Structures are given as structure tokens and as C-alpha cells.
Amino acid sequence: MTQRAHGPSGDEPNRSSRPSGTDRPVMIDAGSELDPVHPVGLPAPADAGRGLTAAEVAERIARGEVNDVPVRSSRSMSEIVRANVFTRFNLIIGLLWLIMLFVAPIQDSLFGFVIIANTGIGIVQEWRAKKTLDSLAVIGEAKPTVRRDGVAAEISTSEIVLGDLVELGPGDKVVVDGRVAEADSLEIDESLLTGEADPVLKRPGDPVMSGSFVVAGGGAFAATKVGREAYAAQVAEEASRFTLVQSELRSGISTILKYVTWMMIPTAIGLVLSQLVVKDNNFRESIARTVGGIVPMIPEGLVLLTSVAFAIGVVRLGRKQCLVQELPAIEGLARVDIVCLDKTGTLTEGGMDVTEVRALNGVDEPYLHRVLAALGASDTRPNASLQAIIDAYPVPDGKDWGITQALPFSSARKYSGAAFDEDDGRTSAWLLGAPDVLLPEEDPALTEIDQLNQQGLRVLLLARVEGPLDGPGIAAGALPSALIVLEQRLRPDARETLAYFADQRVATKVISGDNAVSVGAVAAKLGLAGAEHTMDARRLPTDPDELATAMENNTVFGRVTPQQKREMVAALQSRGHTVAMTGDGVNDVLALKDADIGVSMGSGSEATRAVAQIVLLNNSFATLPSVVAEGRRVIGNITRVATLFLTKTVYSVLLAILVVCFQVEYPFLPRHLTLLSTLTIGIPAFFLALAPNKERAHPHFVRRVMRYSIPSGTIAAVATFVTYLLARHHYVGPGSLDAETSAATLTLFLVSMWVLAIIARPYTWWRICLVAAMGLAFLVVLVVPWLQNFFALKLVGAQMPWTAVGIAVIASAALEYAWRLVSRRFPV
């Protein structure tokens, strides 16, 4: 399994492909009094360092001692069906539908069939999204390395059994609870569980908790709790489930529906009393017109379309190998105005090449090559920088130096090291890491290093030291021996991606553990605006407000520690910014967790993938613009269609109130409003919700929708009711109510079409065709006799229909004025 962790100068390196198996020293023996390899109550294997045998694994599986927590990336099929079927509004509409089936013709019950069709569409689309999520989750699933019968192999997390010996390396997440069996300078970060930011040095016998992750060193632990008994199992399962909550869009729609419910209940009661008690009409027709007044108040399709838009977004991104672990992340990234990038793995590829080794202080160059080869052999999990050294300076056959001590890289230290017994019997100890950390500020070598950094090259310092590597102040007396110059490989798609964010007015901040000048040079090569504004994070202010100012005024930051990354994100958020953080190394985990949106590379460490909302399985930073575009499509289009739905709600409520106040029959039957809703809202909303939309996401969803819906609905209701009152005075005799309804329907349709025409802007050929097709469909209903009868729509005479058209024209002009006035007087 390929993982990433921090390299000597702050990069995110690749784990070696060499097996780590049993070549790591076992720090305790199996026969010791405390046997952490095997849980209490079970007999210890003959050789604890070799892990369980096949027979022991089979025995534990038979007893059910397996890590069988069903972590899902999406809702189950039964949950999808329940969520789409059993809603508050479906219940209301279902009851009204049943009533209509008994008291009115089938055409007055069409709204019920529409709800069934819409709910079916929602279930199918979400099921497609579930399949995409589940398949991508399998692809992106981290597989821990487990040692059995002395052989290390990757297995699924769900296949771990009680007592398994699980190997750990930098960036690995602890997947079940256990006790440390082997430790090689093993440091584990438990901050996601305990809130304690400092890594904890683990020794054999120490407990480890699921949900923590390795920041330095390596080792192995024995599983003592698996399945739902593990400390973080329930939390991890819940966090990884499919969710549609915790987003402004979803919470805004919930708020709107709550207000609609409050308005609908008293209005519906008043309408029922008005039609059944006050007016002495045919009972069945009174029931039908009452239901016709209640049904359009419910914006049931709004929730459905939002779910469908999100689900289709997941499917579209899934085709681009982008795993969206939480659906609101699509929306969240569209709202982002600052993207914080880690250089390695994002702007540059993981691999590097050694271009030069410059000897210092007269050290013999062939001897330096032997030292570098020995350092490479000392780490069973080399990072990208060390792997480049291994490739350039392999160990000569049969000439291994004995390793007496090893110090793994830590992103806090910025260096690693090892001590050796050399061929001639001498001993030596070395550090390899960031020159500006290991050298004093006045050292003349820093000038030479700065010149190399300005060329975008990475420079590591090899220094000889005396004393134990983990001793205090060991770096203070380091004697510089060589500069190792590494060339980084730029991602071919990074330039275009940075240009996209600049074009979209999204600020980019490069935050790296590398030297700030070197990072700035790389960013400048990729055309990042402001790349010349570099800052060494060691000089950043600690005051949050001053830190926020520094973050806003600079673009490139180097020598950043993991805790500083977290503080940087918090500082930007304190200024009202929506922050996305990308990364693939263990040093990025805390910042990814705190950012509004965390984006991890698929080849990144397991810990980063666990906390990120979005995982780029193809490891391509260039996929991010697709996620941003998908989020903007969802938000922009849902805002459009929400205005359509809520305009209908507003005019339905106002019409009902006017009917109650004027003590007249409700002008519409359910079939009329079903027709209007289908042509002016249902069909257009579906196409508009899925259309391309590059408009930048804006906050205050509820205010943006209601500021247009209220005046539009009011104008539509007043115009329709005026037409209805005029028609009541114009038509007399049998069939007058049908003629009055037809005239009112014509006005309401034309006004609603104008609302649709406004919302469809800016016009494209397909939007014009969409609006025109809806108008043509209504015209067909008016002129085809059997459709006239089916929908009870027949315009009588010429005077009243043209009056209805004239009122609609005046109302449309009022709509145009109202929209412009609202945009000018009440900007969001």
C-alpha cells in the first residue's frame, strides 16, 4: 500500500514498496509478563512477532471476533426509500389525494400521481448516487498491513480479528484498539479523540486507540478490541455515512418549509370553513376546490429536486474519480473563497531526483555517498526525499553499515537521523533535514542555499553530530557535511488549476513545510499571482488577528508546522473566509479537520482520507475545478427553482386568504393547478436544476429566495384574483363558474410564465426553447377539445379572455419593476 507522510524538509513522501515484515526490531518478547501482542484471556502464539497463525485466525472468525463494523459511505436502500416517501408533505398530499379519489374525477387527482413519479425519480437518483459512492469508497478504502505467520499483507479493515498484529507507519490510522507490540520511535497523534495537539510517544505495552494516527516512526500493535467495541468505531461509522444535512442550502430549505407550514395550517382551515360552511355549494365540488386551494401551498418538489441535484452531482463527480464523503461538501467547496494548498502532492508530484551533492568542510565525496546510502537503508518506510537518495545512492552489495540508532522524521523537527557502526569499526551519527533549521542564522552556507531555493530546488543538509540522536539540543552542535540538491517534478495540470481559481476570484495560499523561498519559486513557475510574497512561518505572529492579517497579505508560507496549519485555517475563518484545505500528508490532518472543506489525495495517508470530505482518488489537483463547478451548479440552480416553487406557495396562500375574505368560491380545481404547476414549475425546474451554472455561490439562501418569491407571488395572486372578480361580474347563468375559472387560469398561467422567463435568464437557445415549449403546451390544452374537457378549461367569448391577457401584461410589467427594485434596494 502506498502512503504519504512528511519528508525531511516537509514534503509528503511515499512509503517504500519494500515489505516491512519482521525486519523491524521486536521491542518485547512473547514470553514477557505483559504480552501486548495477545489480548488477555487468549493463549499467546508461539512467536508473537510473527502474528497469528492461519488456524488462530480461523478460530477467531468462527467465534465472531472480527472487526465487522459496517462502515458505509451512503444510506441503505431502505433508508433512501423512507427518506423519500415518508415526509411531512407527502403525508398531507397523500391524505388529500385519497379524499379526491372518492369525491372528484380522476383528473382532479393528478397531483397524487405526480408526487408518486417525483418520489420515484428521487429514489432512483439517490440509489444511483449510493452505488457510485459505495464503489468509490471500496476503491479508496485504506487497507492496513497485518502480519500473519510472519508475513505482512494488506487486508480489508473488516477482516482484522482479535489479536492480529497490525503494522504502523507514518500517516497510518489506527483502525482498532490495541496495545503496542513494537515501537521504533513511534509517535501517535490522538488529537482527533482527546483534543490534545501534541503527539504521544508510544512504547511497547502502551495502549493505542482507534481513530488516532501515526505522525512519526513505526511499529506494530496487537488488536485488543475490534468491531463495535473499539473506542472510535461508532464515531467513525456515523461520520462516514451519507448525509444531506449541515449545509446552508439544506438548512435554508428546512427553514422555508417550517414557515410554509405555519402559513398553510391557518389558511387551509379558513379555506375549508369558507368553502364548506359559508358557501352553499355542491358538497363534492366544494371539497375539490378546497383541496385545490391547499395542494399548491406545499412546495413538495423543492426538497425532491434538491436531493436529485445533489445525487446527480455525486454521480457526475464519481465519473471523474472524485469521492464525495459528505454531500454538502459539493456545496461547501462552491462557497470557498480561499484554498490552502500543500505544495508536495498538489503543485508538485511526489517523486524527486537528486541533481547534485555539494560537499562541505572538506568531507570526502565518496564517503558522503556511503553515508547517504546507509541513511537510506536505515528507514524501512522512506519518504519522497529519502527515496530519491536511495535511488541515487544504493547500498553496495555486502557493505551494509550496522544501524545502532534511528530517528524518524517529524514535521515538528524538520529532520531525521541515524547512527552507524561503519566498516572500519568507527561509529558516526548523522542528521538529514532542513538547512535553515539545522544551521544557525549567520551560517554562510545559507546564502548558497538561498540561491538554490530561488531556482525552485529543494535543498537538504547532511550534518554530523555527537551524542544520542534523541538527546536535547542535538542539532545545535551539528557539523555541516553536505548539501543534497533535489529537483521537484511539477504537476502538468497545476498551472491551469491555479489559473481557474484566480479567474473565479478564489484566493490561493500555498502552505508548506519546505523553505519558503523554494516554495515561492515553484509557485512562480506555475504562474501563481503573488508568489513573490513569501513568508517563513517561524516569523509569523502568534496573535490570531495579526496572523489573519499576515495570511491575507501573503501568498506563500514555508516551514509551517502542523499546529501552525491549523492556526492559519482558524485565523482565516475568523475573518469570515470559507476555507478549503488540500493535503495528503499526516501533517495536514489537523488543518483538514478544521477547514470548512478538507480535500485529500487518494494516495495520501489513511488519516487524511479519513477526515477529508472530498477524496481525489486519481490524485489530480485538476479535479477540484470540477467539484467547484458542480457545487456552483447545484447552489445556483436550486436558488433559481426555489424561487419558482415558493412563488407558487405565496400566491396560493394569498389566493386562499382573498377567497376567505371576499366569501367567494375558490377559483380553481386541483386539475387546473396541477397543469399550471407542471408547465410553469415542475418540468422547467427539473431542467433548470440540472443545467450548467458557473455563477459564484452567494450566502443567505433564504433571504435571496424570499426577496423575489414574496413580491412575485403577491403580484400573481392579486392579478389572478382581479381577473376572477371581473369574470364573476361578466359571466352569468349556468357554466359561469367554469368560465370564470378559465379566465383566472389564463391570467395566472401568463404571470407564472413571466416569472419563469425571468428566472431562466440569461437566455440560451435551450432556455428559450424550454419557455416556448411550456407556452405551446398550454396553448394545445386550450385548443384541443378533449384536453379542454379533461382540464375543464374553455375560454368563453372574447372580451374576458383578452381582459385576462391585459391584466397579465400589466402584472408582468409590475414583476419586471419589482425584481429590479428588489435587486437594487435589498441586495444580499
UniProtKB/TrEMBL annotation:
Record NCBIfam families: ATPase_P-type
Entry keyword set: Membrane, Translocase, Transmembrane, Transmembrane helix
Phylogenetic classification of the source organism: Bacteria, Bacillati, Actinomycetota, Actinomycetes, Kitasatosporales
SUPFAM superfamilies for this protein: Calcium ATPase, transduction domain A, Calcium ATPase, transmembrane domain M, HAD-like, Metal cation-transporting ATPase, ATP-binding domain N
Stretches for region Disordered: 1-30
Record's subcellular location: Cell membrane
Ranges that cross the membrane: 85-104, 110-127, 259-278, 298-317, 650-669, 675-693, 705-727, 739-759, 766-787, 799-819
Domain P-type ATPase A: 144-238
Protein species of origin: Streptomyces brevispora
Name this polypeptide is given: Cation-translocating P-type ATPase
Topology within the bilayer: Multi-pass membrane protein
Domain of life: Bacteria
Keyword flag RNA-binding: no
